[in-house]
């Protein structure tokens, strides 16, 4: 698995006014082994993306391509600016890139009605667990009287009332004077980043009922190796793979390391599930691949057994970052037993006299879904059977879903 595959975005978040457009750029972090198509989709209503996909080759992979995001003017006064994501998904025969995803946060600024808002809020704000941050708010236009603003405390975000300008009240003279709202960020027991939305609601005068929001991403400060499902829907502790098949899952770090982290990934029993690879996660502020979910592939090993088999995959970190050094996570793997079709031959050896005939009965062990041709020939006293022509120049036996149990 390539160490540095990824989609590099010029912005982690953007704002776009209704009836207007914004742009950002996309490129790949490393030369792919095959062309990569990056498709874009959004969960924001009224948002269009152009072009719908970008194509990168082994020649232009490092060239930034422009994406234009346009917001329709819906002539509706939204109480809160619509917010969502543009998701970028890579498709390629290069398995290091195929399925890779990255997102840009989008806030659409409403321009309808009187467009009143609580100003000072904006793009996605990233903070660390155990840290604190401040927001400076004011009203977007002059108040006709006294306006009070209430604030929510979502998740692990706790208002620091003593260090904030409470009560949050504005009037016709002070509407444009900023007030400080300070939050302390709590620490939870999990190792996943959390995203919370702070809601500010005004009451009184001409701002009664006006609502604005601020999205906050809480970065994890606990060092851990996160193991994700292939579809990015959740972290996983178990994985199933069929014999003779390959399954993919993904690995990332939970927090930014202070030094590069090498994760060694090995199966505890290579005769059951085969994997032996390493991933390198970087600590720099450029391409932050420690946040990327990196693809890992495990192969279920075929064996003459009628039972499922189990083993574990060990993920071990090594780094000069003491928080990550030696950290280990496990993934339990079940290799599902698969019954494979076989040719059944009545004889394994024949002794014949010259000028006489002898016979071999051939049948199939499993019912085929369609007609199967079995080619055969005798070379140097050995009869060879094959389901592919593959140079076999002798006779042909045919089996159908109806007569597969009948010997030929």
Explain how this protein is built.
The structure is a single chain. The protein is mainly beta and 408 residues long. Helices cover 0% and strands 46% of the residues. It has no helices and 32 strands. The protein has strands at residues 7-9, 13-17, 21-28, 36-42, 47-50, 53-56, 65-71, 83-92, 101-109, 118-119, 125-128, 132-139, 147-151, 157-159, 169-170, 179-185, 194-203, 211-219, 225-228, 238-242, 246-253, 261-267, 273-274, 276-281, 294-300, 309-318, 328-336, 343-345, 362-364, 372-379, 382-386, 395-399. The relative contact order is 0.11.
Defining traits:
single chain, 408 residues, mainly beta, five-stranded mixed β-sheet, 32 strands
Q: What's the topology here?
A:
Blueprint (H helix, E strand, L loop, with lengths): L6 E3 L3 E5 L3 E8 L7 E7 L4 E4 L2 E4 L8 E7 L11 E10 L8 E9 L8 E2 L5 E4 L3 E8 L7 E5 L5 E3 L9 E2 L8 E7 L8 E10 L7 E9 L5 E4 L9 E5 L3 E8 L7 E7 L5 E2 L1 E6 L12 E7 L8 E10 L9 E9 L6 E3 L16 E3 L7 E8 L2 E5 L8 E5 L9
Parallel strand pairs: 2-9, 11-18, 20-27
Antiparallel strand pairs: 1-3, 3-7, 4-6, 4-8, 5-7, 8-9, 10-12, 12-16, 13-15, 13-17, 14-16, 17-18, 19-21, 21-25, 22-24, 22-26, 23-25, 26-27, 28-29, 30-31, 30-32
């Amino acid at each position: 698995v390539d160490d540095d595959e990824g989609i590099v975005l010029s912005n982690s978040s953007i704002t776009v006014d209704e009836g207007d457009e914004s742009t950002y750029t996309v490129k790949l972090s490393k030369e792919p082994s095959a062309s990569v198509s990056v498709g874009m989709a959004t969960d924001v209503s009224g948002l269009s993306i152009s072009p719908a996909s970008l194509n990168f080759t082994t020649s232009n992979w490092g060239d930034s391509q422009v994406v234009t995001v346009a917001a329709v003017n819906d002539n509706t006064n939204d109480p809160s600016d619509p917010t969502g994501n543009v998701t970028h998904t890579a498709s390629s025969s290069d398995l290091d890139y195929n399925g890779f995803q990255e997102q840009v946060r989008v806030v659409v600024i409403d321009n309808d009605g009187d467009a009143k808002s609580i100003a000072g809020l904006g793009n996605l704000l990233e903070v660390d667990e155990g840290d604190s941050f401040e927001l400076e708010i004011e009203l977007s236009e002059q108040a006709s009287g006294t306006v009070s603003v209430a604030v929510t405390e979502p998740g692990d975000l706790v208002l620091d009332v003593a260090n904030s300008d409470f009560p949050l009240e504005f009037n016709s003279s002070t509407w444009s004077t900023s007030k400080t709202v300070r939050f302390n960020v709590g620490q939870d027991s999990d190792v996943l980043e959390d995203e919370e939305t702070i809601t500010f609601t005004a009451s009184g005068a001409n701002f009664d009922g006006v609502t604005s929001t601020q999205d906050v991403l809480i970065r994890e400060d606990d060092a851990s190796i996160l193991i994700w499902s292939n579809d990015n829907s959740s972290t996983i502790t178990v994985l199933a793979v069929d014999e003779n098949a390959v399954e993919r899952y993904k690995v990332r770090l939970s927090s930014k390391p202070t030094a590069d982290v090498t994760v060694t990934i090995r199966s505890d029993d290579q005769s059951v599930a085969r994997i032996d690879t390493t991933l390198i996660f970087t600590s720099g502020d450029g391409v932050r691949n420690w946040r990327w979910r990196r693809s890992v592939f495990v192969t279920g090993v075929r064996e003459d057994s009628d039972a499922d088999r189990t083993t574990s995959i060990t993920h071990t970190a090594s780094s000069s970052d003491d928080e990550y050094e030696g950290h280990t996570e496990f993934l339990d793997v079940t290799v599902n037993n698969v019954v494979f079709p076989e040719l059944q031959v009545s004889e394994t050896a024949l002794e014949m006299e010259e000028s006489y005939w002898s016979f071999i009965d051939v049948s199939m062990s499993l019912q085929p879904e369609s007609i199967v041709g079995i080619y055969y020939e005798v070379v140097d006293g050995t009869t060879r059977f094959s389901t592919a022509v593959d140079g076999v120049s002798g006779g042909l036996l045919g089996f159908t879903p109806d007569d597969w149990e009948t010997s030929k």
